[in-house]
Amino acid sequence: MAAAEGAAMIELNDLTVRFGGVTALDAVSARFKAPVSGIIGPNGAGKTTTMNVISGFLRAQGSISAFGTDIARLAPHRRSQWGLRRSFQREQLADDLSVADNLQVILDALPGTAQEKRADLAQALEVTGLAARAQQLAGGLNTFERRLTDVARCLIGRPRLVMFDEPAGGLTQDETHRLGTLIAQVHGLTGALVLLIDHDVDLIQRLCSETLVLDFGRRIAFGETRAVLADPAVQAAYLGIEEAG
Ligand SMILES: Nc1ncnc2c1ncn2[C@@H]1O[C@H](COP(=O)(O)OP(=O)(O)OP(=O)(O)O)[C@@H](O)[C@H]1O
Ligand SMILES: [Mg+2]
Questions:
Q1: For ligand 1, is residue 135 a contact (CB within 6 Å)?
Q2: Is the CB of 43 under 6 A from ligand 1?
Q3: Less packed terminus of the chain by CB within 10 Å, N or C?
Q4: Would you state the pLDDT for residue 22?
Q5: Residue 90 has pLDDT above 50, yes or no
Q6: How many other C-beta atoms are found inside a 10 Å radius of the C-beta of residue 8?
């Protein structure tokens, strides 16, 4: 396992975001230090908004510290250089580029020698099982391969914080399991902390030692995943969405 540095931690302090009359985040605080931390909650709870604030797409009241740096204040290209990687609820691949070139465009914007970048790219393709697809156009990939490409994009260029927004959406159970195995490897391979949003509670339970639960923009629970899922307030928030199993 890559050793976590002194302050390998993502700290959200009193984040508040309003869209007109909707309070998407209401004074949310949490300190993520697990290799993989979960963010769960019903639709519209504020999960994606949280990632948008962390990645600086959205401004919020409050502050964020990632390994001691206020990353939300960094310009987008600086965030990438700092080590922020993210996948979106819909993958953002360039369909007219090959799988390898979808990774290369990220590496092109980062420091490092061509040789280092080649090795980095090759490792990401290998780990994700995409090596045989490297020269195929992204537009010709199936849903699972697109998702794997998304993960590969998050592995390259020395990431420090990787965020996945519903990576298992639309995948079969078997694909979800394989994707989960891959996401569980991200920290060991790169040293990055991972934040994972998903509606699949089994996946969250399997991968995340700690989990934040949001409901209507509020933090209703945070801590060890098992304890959080057993919390009556969390079960109440999920009532009617899925039966507690
Ligand atoms: N750009 C926006 N403009 C207006 N309202 C927004 C915007 N983005 C999000 N919202 C609202 O903020 C709230 C939180 O949305 P968010 O997308 O963070 O939820 P979520 O937890 O990711 O939900 P889901 O599980 O459906 O993806 C919702 O009420 C949503 O309608
Ligand atoms: Mg969302």
A1: no
A2: yes
A3: C
A4: 95
A5: yes
A6: 20
Q: Is the CB of 41 under 6 A from ligand 1?
A: yes
Residue 137 is given by DSSP the state B
DSSP assigned state of 69: B
CA of 243 relative to ligand 1 center, distance in Å: 24
Confidence (pLDDT) at 178: 97
Quickly name the fold that domain 10-238 has. Answer: Rossmann fold (3.40.50)
- Predicted confidence (pLDDT) per residue in 169-201, tens digit: 999 999 999 999 999 999 999 999 999 999 999
Q: pTM above 0.90? A: yes
What protein residues have CB closer than 5 angstroms to ion ligand 2? 47-48
Concatenating the DSSP letter of every residue in 63-88 gives: EEEETTB-GGGS-HHHHHHHTEEEE-
d(CA 184, CA 164): 12
Sequence ranges of the domains in the chain:
10-238
Q: Which of 220, 212, 218 is nearest to 26 (CA)?
A: 218
